[in-house]
Design brief:
The chain has about 375 residues and is an alpha/beta fold. The protein has 11 helices and 8 strands. Helix 8 links the parallel strand 7 (about 250-255) and strand 8. The longest helix is centred in the first third of the chain and has 21 residues, at about 100-120.
């Protein structure tokens, strides 16, 4: 079973800016930690370099006007409708190479989809991907091009049924928008409630429309939700929904900002539970495209995605001891971690009101969504 890993090093030349929370150098640190553990050396693992998405590929979701505005802004030209497209804001800056950045990330995700569709790979991981907030005509939430939507569009062009599962702390609103009216894509987003965090969407009543009615599942969690709630979500929502929908391919967005200690979100998943979630996706036994996503505690990001790749690659469980050569290199970026899974094997239980809230969510999904998935 071949596994494809995107080598992100060619993307490290891009930079959102010194004060921006989205640190592209985390991709390099994660990749080097993967290498330090020897996870790039197995005989069934091969690397691919990002390639730029074509405009036709991007237009399966994005508008021509938006792509042209992004391209002109990249060249340094003043564009009068920049702000109307969500560009040039603190969240979505226009930096040198911004068009190329978005299209390279998207191209890498599409390339992974094609590796799976062709049968060359059973699993693929693009840690630079998962930029799930970008809308058809607007950048949003640090996301300029929605690589996840474009990769899934490539899959459904081949008449594949796809389940998209998003465990980023923020609602996967752009991907939901892309497939909200389609019957052949099931989107599942598990995130901190939109009542408390960007983008303010992703409520349980958002279940799809028209042909897509019942093809959208949202599991909003209250702040402070911990490992025990994620165990319930996997057992009570994700697994039964996937079993009912019977997809051909799984796409996961593995944002690490739900992990305890993130600088933006307020959830309490442990690194060990993150690893368990990824193992749960592997146990679904489907061809699998994994994407990165959010994460603003760089130490958490690099450890989470190293653990994710070890599961995707089918490696033996990794030692908690961080390779010393990597630790020295990471210190240049003021990243200091002493253990791969951290010192918290499981976070303290979620408060009672968090379980009660999830009870209501599950009951509503069982009533209004699950019967439509068969």
């Amino acid at each position: 079973m071949n596994k494809c890993l995107v080598d992100p090093r060619s993307l490290l030349r891009f930079d959102f800016g010194e004060t921006h929370p989205f640190k592209i150098y985390r991709l390099g640190l994660a990749y080097e930690l993967i290498r330090a553990y020897g996870l790039d050396e197995a005989g069934d693992v091969y690397l691919v370099a990002p390639r730029e998405a074509t405009e036709d590929e991007a237009k399966t979701f994005h508008t021509t006007g938006y792509l042209e505005t992004l391209r002109l802004a990249d060249s340094g030209m003043w564009v009068p409708n920049l702000f109307a497209h969500g560009l040039g804001t603190p969240d979505n800056p226009v930096f040198p190479g911004v068009y190329e950045w978005g299209m390279q990330v998207a191209g890498a995700s599409i390339q992974c989809a094609e590796e799976i569709l062709s049968g060359r790979a059973e699993r693929a991981f693009n840690m630079s991907g998962g930029l799930h907030h970008a809308m058809p005509a607007r950048a949003s939430g640090f996301c300029h091009i929605n690589d996840a939507a474009l990769a899934i569009h490539r899959m459904i062009q081949e008449r594949k049924r796809v389940v998209y599962i998003d465990i980023d702390a923020h609602h996967g609103d752009g991907v939901q928008e892309a497939f909200y009216r389609r019957a052949d894509v099931l989107t599942i987003s598990v995130h901190q409630s939109g009542q408390t965090i960007f983008p303010g969407t992703g409520f349980v009543g958002e279940i799809g429309r028209e042909d897509g009615a019942g093809r959208t599942i949202n599991v909003p969690l209250v702040p402070g939700a911990a490992d025990d709630l994620y165990v319930r979500v996997m057992d009570e929502v994700i697994v039964p929904a996937v079993q009912r929908f019977r997809p051909d391919i799984i796409v996961t967005q593995l944002g690490s900002d739900a992990i305890l200690g993130d600088l933006v979100a307020n959830l309490r998943m442990s690194l060990t539970q993150f690893e368990r979630m990824v193992k749960g996706f592997a146990d679904l036994g489907l061809p699998w495209l994994a994407l990165g996503g959010g994460g603003y505690h760089v130490g958490n990001v690099v450890r989470a995605w190293t653990l994710a790749w070890s599961v995707i690659a089918g490696a033996e469980p990794l030692s908690d001891e961080i390779p010393s050569t990597w630790a020295t290199a990471a210190s240049v970026h003021d990243v200091f971690v002493s253990s791969l899974r951290g010192s918290v094997p499981s976070t303290p239980d979620s408060p009672d009101h968090a379980h009660e809230d999830l009870d209501r969510t599950v009951a509503e999904l069982i009533k209004n969504v699950f019967p439509r998935l068969g």
